Amino acid sequence: MALISTEPLAPAAAAPPRRRRRGLRTLTRRDKIVAALMIGIPLLLDFAFIWFPALASIFLSFTKWTGVGSIKLQSCENFPSAPGIPQPGCLYGVQNYVQAFTNYPDFWPAVRHNAIWLAVFIVIATPLGILFAVILDRGLRGTRFYQSALFLPVMLSLALIGIIWELIYSPNFGLINTIIGHNQNENLIDWLGNPRLNLWALLVEASWRQAPYVMVLYLAGLKAVDPSLREAAVVDGANGWQTFWRVVFPTMRPINIVVLVVTVIESLRAFDLVYITSKGNPLRGLELLSVLVTQNIVGETQRIGFGSTLGVVLLVISLVPISIFLYQAFRREEQR
Amino acid sequence: MTAVTSSRPTRHAAVPDRTARPLGPRITRVASQVFMIVMTVLWVTPILFALYVALRPIAETNKLGYVSLPHKLTFENFANAWTQSDMWRFFLNSVYVTVPAVLLTLFMASMVAYVVSRLSFRFNIPLLILFTAGNLLPQQVIITPLYRLYLAIHLPEWISGNGLLYNSYAGLIVINVSFQLGFCVFVLSNYMKTVPTDIDEAALLDGASLWTRYWRVTIPLVRPALAALATLLTTWIYNDFFWAITLISTGNKRPITSALANLQGQFVANQNMIAAAALIAAIPTLIVYVLLQKQFIAGLSLGSSKG
């Protein structure tokens, strides 16, 4: 809570932690109905369009369904697939998972690319953002200018970012190839087309947006650190480096977790940049789990069951950061 | 991220023999300035470069490349991008989706937040967890069943031209609201807990109903948080790409951000015009950036400040 009070927005900064909440008994009958509706309608939306699909994807991942006809609760073996006759939806057991893990050629590259994406975010983009925040927090001259300039990419959509970076990476005309002298037809570097380069090229774009995003989150946290802590450290002879790592960083645990969670979730969600860069067609070198999921529901042949399977894999991975965040955010409430 | 978790007292950190402070404050300051200047230049380059390319005719850059001195700077690409694609239509689509979605999200989230933060109710925490977790899921986890759900839900013709939730503005509004609800409930319920309850209680003694206490008493008090969230949500929903790409199949119905994918195909021979179109699409966010940056940052900070 301390953080909020540093914001100019905060009401009555020193609100005492008094929380006299009334039980439901003091409510009139009409108030109870109103309260139920106030919670019920948003809850219905959340269930119908978020949690129901999330649970349904688990069920669908054990089926085989082209989206034509309904799903029969019978094993697929009862429905011989003859050419020309569409098979109804049927129970497929763990076959989708077996297929994904063993003979779907894009699966493991996608997992690897997602892991690389996450690694680059954790090792480069996020620490860079934290570094920006730490430097700006020291009250450098021009801090506001730096912050505004760095912050701009956070406001832009990833689709737009993908488009403007194409100009930088353009093989014949682009900024990079011109500078390094690789813009002649015989020595072109195709940054976005070459499967060994394009993931890294996109990661530069993604980090360009991620670092200032982390910077903003982190700056808010740093501003809230009690200055007397730092003063005490300085009095005790700690230098700036020690003060940050031994004093400031540990007190920022909540914000560190938020930043970590944001980093993991954003790297799992990565989709827009790949889609816009590859113009909707899958491009070698840019397979990501999120992209594969989407490929299975568009086009003539929908593979609802298989697409759901990939979604479930993504769900299982994302549950880790989600649980970490929820634990840290609600742990204290439970104790009250 | 796990580098230092030990919270040893600082006294031990300042080991006496650590006499050398390798970087004096002055050098540190100069180094910091240099670093930030270099980074800032790197950071604004892509945007300025895009603007530069968009201002030059394609014939010229095809001959000289993008990195060359200009012979002619013109807004032709912007004008052509605007007229040749009927861009106003995509902007209108963005308005149709973004405005109702932001208002509905804030309205619903504030209702939940009020009940959760003001009434003691056994399921408060599970409710908050449910909403918050829903917002953290990657969108692709739910898209496959959601897509089938959208094809299965029928709407009256006057809401959706094709009679389905799929490929309709309503559908796009619904998913944006549902998805963003979690974040806003989380932020607003935390915020409301910092607002003193005295006024609420005074109103109760005066016999005010629950709704009056929510709408007349509490909402005015949380207006700053609502303003920050509105800025954030407007930007996020305006920038949404994924929902519109997957749930809207008719190009003409897509909001501007997702329509960029189509424009990219339409102007494929003229990269300069694509850049111009992208920069036109950025204008609303740039306006927010210039005028409401503080609100935007405040919104982000509110979201991360729980702890």
How many strands appear in the DSSP assignment of chain B? 0
* First-last Cα distance of chain B: 18 Å
CATH architecture of the domain at 103-335 in chain A: Orthogonal Bundle
| Oligomeric description of these chains | heterodimer
CATH superfamily of the domain at 103-335 in chain A: MetI-like
What is the CATH C-level name of the domain at 103-335 in chain A? Mainly Alpha
The CATH class of the largest domain in chain B, by name, is Mainly Alpha
H/E element sequence of chain B: HHHHHHHHHHHHHH
Uncertain stretches of chain A: 1-20
Major beta sheet, strand line-up of chain A: 1-3-2
Rg of Cα set of chain A:
25 Å
Give the domain tally of chain B: 2
| Apparent shape of chain B | globular
- Going by helix content, strand content and strand pairing, the class of chain A is mainly alpha
Order of helices and strands of chain A: HEEEHHHHHHHHHHHH
